[in-house]
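Posting here for the record, re: TNX.
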Amino acid sequence: MPASSLLPRPTEAHATAGHFTLGPRTCLRIGEGAEPAARLLRTLLAPATGLPLHPADDATVTLTLDRTLTDLGDEGYGLTVAPQAVLLRAAQPTGLLRGVQTIRQLLPPPALAASPQRGVRWSLPCVEITDVPRHRWRGAMLDVARHFQPVSYLRRYVDLLALHKINVFHLHLTDDQGWRMPVAAYPKLTEVGGLRARPDGAPHGGAYTRSELAGLVAYAAERGITVLPEIEMPGHVRAALAAYPHLGNRPDRALDVWTRWGVCDTVLGVHEEVFDFCRTVLEEVMDVFPSPYVHIGGDECPVTEWEESPQARACAREAGLSGPAALHGWFLGRVGAFLVRNGRRPVGWAETGTELPDGFTVLAWRDPAHARAAAARGHDVVNAHHRATYFDYPLSDGPQEPPGQPGAVVGLRDVHAHDPVPAGADPDTAARVLGAQAQLWTEYAATPARLEYLTYPRLCALADRTWSGPTSWTDFRSRLDRHTARLDALEVSRHP
Ligand code: TNX
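Prediction output follows.
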């Protein structure tokens, strides 16, 4: 496939004459530090091509690190394909992993298939590419709390993210309707909180094992992707309260794992047992997930229970707060400080852009003004504006759309036009915008086929915008038309 079909679009690509063809005798020259990239290239190409790509010192395909190429940053790479040789270079190992995905896209689409493909010439067009991402946070969130997905599917999800050079896989692990991460000290979180009754009595449930999650983290790391874990607090915790009612505001009350969608009134209490719980859970999360960032939710937390609780009101008074509503920021500040003491950076959802404590990285979802406000206060910001990045919203309001999240439509064009830097941002504010991320909430999406239908091709547009910066709609469309052959080879579902 020509370089003009690459998605995301590389920073610079100059096509030259001729082809390089990979065959059974093609070998790899693997520089120091390039072993992970060589392994990934083999892993990705083996199923369809059967090519062994053995190592050899006089090989025609070279993968090498050159730490002096600092302009390439952590993720950039240079790729030269000439008739007799291929050279992939980067300053850092992750850059080589990105370049491997480009090599894969330059091959004919059957190279991406999961089964042996016969009679295909594995040729790459000659080209000179220098490629550096525009934004350093290019994320995709998957909500496995509302509908559980097996870890095998999460691995496929990661594979598809890697193809698009997405680098953050945000796993929404807990919510009112389900708790999916095991915590040794609190076994009922998954035993009780992992299972909910449906209104019709048919149960829905599931939880990961620790080793499945650790395996997923390693799998993602081999593809240059960080798994960002999210544990919701102090709201969106009904599943945890069903398991451990004493963590709430009314310990005498038995609650079920929530069977409805929306914002639930029941939230964590504010007492020391709750902070013990949060620390214990997050210690286990940090053990399993090496991500420098840990997400602790913070969204949609009604304060009615705190207002009605003498204990919460007293806590607010003792902390010198204006009232129970201020416990939200105070709570997140305490837990955030715990993460910071452990060398991690807390992340939270912004409701207004001004309510998260200092030091939080903010996912601004409701309004571009919130992204601006958060950045102006000194927060690092990831733009997750719902009207461009909520892939649970329908793609169109056409009759062919299955019933889904009621809300605004997010069309492919909306995603493509989504600038991570909000309009009107001054240069200081713009510098604090790390990038953008897609959200797939799963109230109305239970099956892998539906998840993929909602994710692609919209994620292609988000990947293009965050890696390449602005591209023209016509250019994007023509690349996407050819990229579709790759998605087809990977059997990405295009029907709900
Ligand atoms: C709002 S955005 C939520 C989620 C829902 C989503 C549905 C955010 C941080 N919270 O709990 O699933 O809307 O679109």
